[in-house]
Amino acid sequence: MATMKPSSARPGPLAVHGFLAAMLLVAACSAPAAMVPGSPGATGGASISPAALPTGNPEVTPPTTTETDWGAIWDAVPPSFPVPQGAKPAEPNEAVSVAWTVSGRPASITETMVSALEAAGWSIEGASDPYEDGSQVIDAVRGAPECRAQVTVAPRGDEILVMVRYAAACPWQ
Question: How many Cβ atoms are within 10 Å of 83's Cβ, its own excluded?
Answer without folding.
Answer: 22
